[in-house]
Amino acid sequence: MALVMHVAPGEVEGRGHAPDPDPAWARTAAVVWPSVDEPGRTAARPAARRRRGDVPRERYRLVRFEGRVRFAVDAGLGRRARRAVLRYGNDLRAPSRRWARRLVGSWFLLGAGDRVGDLVAVPGDDDALGLRTAAAAALGCDEGTVHLSFAVIDREGSARPTVLVSDGRGRPRLFLKVGAGAARLAALEREHDATDVAAARSHREDVGILVPRPVLLHRAGQGGALGLTPLPDDVTPVDAEDPTPTWRVLDRLVAAGPTSAPRLEDSPWLRRLLADARGLRDGRGPLGVPVGPVVAHLGRRAVEMAAEYHRHHGDAFLLHGLRHGDWSPWNLGWTGTGAQRRLVAWDWEFGEAEAPVALDRHNWQFARATSVDRVAAGPAARALLERSTTDGPAALGTSPLTARLFLLDMAVRRALLAAAGERRAVEAASALLDVLAADVV
Q1: What DSSP character marks residue 145?
Q2: Which of 150, 256, 321, 384 lies deepest, with the highest CB count within 10 Å?
Q3: CATH code where residue 398 lies
Q4: Residue 186 lies in a domain
Q5: Are the C-beta atoms of 420 and 183 separated by less than 8 Å?
Q6: pLDDT tens-digit series, residues 66-120
Q7: Is the dihedral of CA 113, 116, 122, 123 positive or negative?
Q8: Residue 8 CB neighbour total at 10 angstroms
Q9: CB 413 within 8 A of CB 377
């Protein structure tokens, strides 16, 4: 991955040797602009020699805060447009993150024009993924009219950049999720399929929900991108304290499509879960990538727990239907007013066409506890089990059994994330399995 650092007009850049000290930016750059001749490179470097008059393909301003790159904004955007792209979706974030991002954006925008932020350029030969070209083709417009701006996500595991494609005024045209490697590409394909089903259903039926529509599934070499219609500009957060309004809409969305009530032993969701867990147990992560003994042990425990539930509850009938997979306050918002008011639901990367529909309700409670209230996975799991036995029968078939199945699903999901390199996921998966082992089936 070659990046050219900004120099004054007429100067000739020398070849640099030191990688960018920000590992999150380096991982992001390596995914977004894979080098043609160095496909395995994982760190950005200020390399390249540029002759006078040689114009790079793309230029970006790096927005840094506390020494880290947080955003890369298309240098061709004016200040008002930069403000628009930095504000996109910010009102949907948690209050602390919302104010932190506003602070970063204000610091960046208060600077003096082109002197704000580092300027990096991408030679055309390094744009092997070709996001700009793919986005322009999906939108049916000229490449020169689209502008890309990147959010740099600092997290363990594989890099997962997100890209806002805008016009010259900063108005959103397309939202991209980008990834590299077989496992990440498979996840993008799953999200594309689940979003396609949900968007078609929400459009066909008057269920009061809006799902961003997939318009692009792009692959090039080991990288790829999923393109979705952007969120409306008036989306406001849902009430994290009261899930009832969102659950009503979820009920209508599920009821609008095919539903079934198979026995647990015949559930396609359980078959998928067992396939994932057995793969980990046998030392294979997503798409056959080898895993270490710690993750393999988590897979073994998950398979044993699933066998217990199969023995005791295999004949139980469970309502199945469309599953979002991460039904939580930060993936939902409201748009419109009055009769035009709609719930917007995004991030369907864990979506499934046929799974126990109660899992999304349990997900809300668990996600709120772990991410909003900052409760550890183990105590949050115990609270979920206790709630499932004391709240009484609920709509969509929630029960102590579906609560246990949800926690098993979360344990396998965390183990898969651990296989992808997220170290903290090991602790969470182990804690969930400990709670289930201590629970009386």
Answers
A1: G
A2: 150
A3: 3.90.1200
A4: no
A5: yes
A6: 778 888 999 889 888 988 888 887 666 556 555 555 566 665 665 544 445 677 8
A7: positive
A8: 5
A9: no
